[in-house]
Write a structure and sequence with these properties.
NAD(P)_dehydrat-like, globular, binds NADP nicotinamide-adenine-dinucleotide phosphate, 10 strands, 12 helices, Rossmann fold
């Protein structure tokens, strides 16, 4: 790395090979940050570099194999020539095929967050200004929301009441995921309350994330969980019809907006100590197939048509979100002073195009 690059602020990014983090890494590199990035193995670092040869010498990879091991992050802070100015923590389990909800979802999510915060506090020094946590709207909404009627819109003050016992007793991985994100975020705020740190915390809470994929792809199994259930599953034969198909949540945001919000949040003073809701608008199985059929006639015979005017599944009335406070913070983080979301149709088009380009559908 040249000395010029080294003089730019240094960011530590976790889980860099993931769907969302790949976009964050692309923006960090593009905006000239010095980046150290974690992945779980050397092979995964090599996959990122094979996918993005132009990132050579622009990112340094460090391996963190297991969040539940002793002091998993200490070695990251021992050797950097330039201390970190910022941490963006994204790595957390998001696969619904698990056999042990506590061990595979809840523990790594919570432990990963608390351990990196502890290490950042103990070894990060005074250069470290901000810790940005990729949270989730599932730590704000209520997993047991009554979908038969629209409730009071959620705000940044809401917390999901779901418990680990409920997820484990029902053997429900979506609930397990909701618990993992809620507990990880709650642990982060508790840590900040109990310690006087040199850095502050900003948590970004997106709902279902879809969008083009720039992470390493080696076949259909590389489609990330949410792009699969929200989009690919309507093309790859998983759903033969729309009747009876439901989503766990009915709001979405495009991955490019998620990535941009994280990098903007590094230097946005309004983001300090905030939870930030990140939602573009409504998503439903019918809205997704409507967009695919309209824009990809060649795929139409593989995609169930449903009833194009019945936008939400019968009886489903999802509660909305009051995003006024979050929109103000997001706007403050932009050069233009204005935050605009990518809409559903563009997001679906770009996602399907990226699936076609990668030959995964
Ligand atoms: N996609 C969404 O709709 C959505 C919505 C809200 C929030 N989020 C959050 O966004 C973040 C990234 O999600 P994504 O959609 O990009 O999923 P993803 O592609 O599956 O990325 C997850 C990343 O976390 C790493 N990871 C998973 N389990 C881990 C563990 N036990 N120890 C260490 N690293 C682990 C993965 O590493 P490997 O590749 O080695 O498994 C990968 O780098 C997560 O925090 C997720 O909760 C996602």
């Amino acid at each position: 790395m040249s000395s010029a690059e080294n003089s730019s602020p240094h960011v530590l990014l976790t889980g860099a090979n993931g769907f969302v983090a790949s976009h964050i890494l692309a923006i960090l590199i593009n905006r000239g940050y010095t980046v150290t990035a974690t992945v779980r193995s050397q092979g995964k670092a090599e996959d990122v570099m094979k996918t993005h040869p132009s990132w050579k010498n622009k990112v340094k990879f460090v391996i963190v194999a297991d969040f539940t091991s002793a002091k998993p992050f200490d070695h990251l802070f021992e050797s950097p020539k330039t201390p970190y100015s910022y941490v963006i923590h994204t790595a957390s389990p998001l696969k619904f095929q698990v056999s042990d909800i506590r061990k595979e979802m809840i523990e790594p999510a919570e432990k990963g967050t608390t351990e990196i915060l502890k290490t950042a506090h103990q070894h990060g020094g005074t250069a470290l200004k901000r810790f940005v946590l990729l949270g989730s709207a599932v730590s704000m909404l209520n997993s047991f929301e009554d979908m038969s009627k629209e409730g009071k819109p959620y705000t940044e003050k809401d917390w999901n009441p779901v418990t680990a016992e409920q997820a484990v007793d029902r053997n429900d991985p979506v609930l397990g995921y909701n618990v993992s994100k809620t507990r990880a975020e709650a642990a982060a705020w508790k840590f900040m309350k109990q310690n006087t740190t040199s850095f502050d915390l900003a948590v970004i809470n997106p709902d279902i994330i879809i969008g083009p994929m720039i992470h390493p792809i080696s076949g259909p199994q590389s489609i990330n969980e949410t792009n699969h259930f929200a989009i690919a599953s309507f093309i790859d034969g998983t759903h033969k019809e729309i009747d009876g198909v439901t989503f766990p949540f009915y709001h979405f945001v495009d991955v490019r907006d998620v990535a941009r919000s994280h990098v903007d949040a590094l230097e946005n003073s309004s983001a300090a100590n905030q939870r930030i809701i990140l939602i573009s608008g409504l998503i439903s199985p019918q809205l997704v197939v409507n967009s695919i059929c309209k824009n990809f006639p060649a795929l139409a015979d593989r995609v169930p048509k449903g009833n194009p005017s019945q936008i939400l599944p019968p009886g489903v009335h999802p509660t909305g979100w009051d995003m006024r406070v979050s929109l103000g913070i997001l706007a403050d983080g932009t050069k233009e002073g204005k935050w605009e979301y990518i809409g559903l149709e563009k997001s679906v088009i770009d996602t399907v195009e990226s699936m076609i380009k990668n030959s995964v559908i």
